[in-house]
Design a protein that fits this description.
401 residues, alpha/beta, 2 domains, five-stranded parallel beta sheet, four-stranded parallel beta sheet, 16 helices, 9 strands, globular
Length: 401
């Protein structure tokens, strides 16, 4: 196996996974020079800190003009995911449209009747800056979330808009939980959803507990993130969520698998999969490959035979408080059972992550935490530094040239 601490080997990596490395704490520490595991383990602390900072910010000006026509969350990458979180946690009862806007400026229809929340972990994203400036020009109510003493803060101050400073201590993809509370609390101020301090506290506790379960010193057979990483090794991951909440977590898993582990991923909603994408189970990476495999072969075997798909189901049974919601959840659960049965009939291996907790936010955390760690362990098992991704840096440089 390639030495994961050997200079540029941490950037090149190796095709086969090194299973032994995952159970050697010293080797794991050497394979993570940028501290991505530590940054990810701080998710609970991120929730507590940013919720407190958001509570200190004066958001009362948002409600002076009443309920907005629409709310636009402007940003890219991880920042844009906060818009998806707001829309999903608010759910179908949200009284106004919540739109995650992932390109420069704001939609052409935005006026003074709307609210724009510009989000950027660094406070320097051209998309967030452009959205904040456009919102100010059009007279829309503006909230900005980002690093303190950043260009985004300057734009917010010029517009006399609320700014929630969120210290940046890691790459944006490891800082999602520092950006979520300010966006949710802004949404609460606008009357879009019900979320309280207990929800944040329970979510932070859940993230702490999962970080402990996924700690580097926990061996693979008891560490759910290491086990999931080994399941995915050498495969083409297909990640489907059973509900809107689980689908959001599935797309987040695709984000970190691509960035941290450099794996190509298919991700989406199980409902959409049942209308066509379920055909992947019969394809050249699914049943056609698995049909010829020895059913008694070591499931952790990697690097031999054809590349196969690995199905990851994120399941959220949810909590129903009325008949209509209970019926929807029952349909989602039957669909998840059906897909799992179809996969198993074809010999396609399935990994399942099940939501736990009371509030939607805590359940979302329970679906995101283990996959986040799994993406990091998978990167290190391939000899990759999960923190340093040259293509991301080069893309930013080329885009600004």
């Amino acid at each position: 196996m390639a030495n994961p601490v050997d200079g540029t080997a941490g950037l090149r990596g190796h095709r086969e996974i090194d299973e032994r490395l995952l159970d050697e704490p010293a080797a794991l520490e050497a394979s993570d020079p940028g501290g991505m595991l530590r940054a990810t383990a701080s998710a609970g602390a991120q929730v507590r800190e940013s919720a407190a900072l958001a509570a200190e910010a004066s958001l009362t000006s948002l409600v002076d003009e009443g309920r907005p026509r629409a709310v636009v969350i402007a940003g890219v990458g991880t920042a844009a995911r906060t818009g998806d979180v707001l829309a999903t946690v608010a759910g179908p009862r949200c009284p106004v449209p919540v739109i995650a806007h992932r390109s420069a400026g704001v939609p052409g229809w935005v006026t003074a009747a709307d609210v724009v929340i510009a989000v950027s972990a660094s406070g320097r994203s051209p998309e967030a800056l452009g959205a904040a400036e456009a919102a100010a020009r059009r007279g829309a109510r503006l909230v900005a979330v980002g690093a303190p003493d950043s260009p985004l803060q300057s734009v917010a101050e010029r517009a006399r808009a609320p700014f929630i400073p969120v210290p940046r201590r890691a790459p944006a993809r490891a800082s999602l939980w520092s950006l979520i509370p300010p966006v949710l609390l802004a949404g609460r101020t606008l009357g879009l959803l019900k979320v309280n301090e207990a929800d944040f506290a329970e979510t932070a506790t859940r993230l702490d507990a999962d970080a402990d379960r996924c700690r580097p010193t926990a061996e693979s057979f008891v560490n759910p993130a290491k086990s999931l990483a080994l399941d995915l090794g050498g495969s083409v991951p297909v990640v489907w969520g059973s509900s809107p909440l689980a689908t959001l977590a599935a797309r987040r898993f695709a984000d970190v698998l691509s960035a941290n582990a450099r794996y190509p991923v298919v991700a989406g909603a199980l409902g959409e999969a049942g209308r066509g994408r379920v055909g992947l189970l019969d394809g050249v990476f699914g049943g056609l490959v698995e049909a010829g495999r020895d059913i008694f072969a070591d499931p952790q075997e990697s690097g031999t035979g054809p590349t196969r798909m690995r199905l990851v189901l994120l399941r959220d049974g949810g909590l129903a408080d009325e008949t209509e919601e209970a019926e929807r959840l029952a349909v989602e659960e039957r669909r998840a059972d059906a897909v799992q049965t179809l996969a198993e009939r074809r010999g396609v291996r399935v990994s399942v992550v099940t939501a736990e907790g009371g509030s939607p936010l805590e359940r979302l955390a329970s679906l995101m935490a283990v996959p986040d760690f799994a993406s990091i362990y998978l990167a290190m098992a391939h000899g990759l530094d999960p923190m340093a991704v040259p293509a991301i840096t080069e893309m930013k440089e080329l885009s600004q040239a």
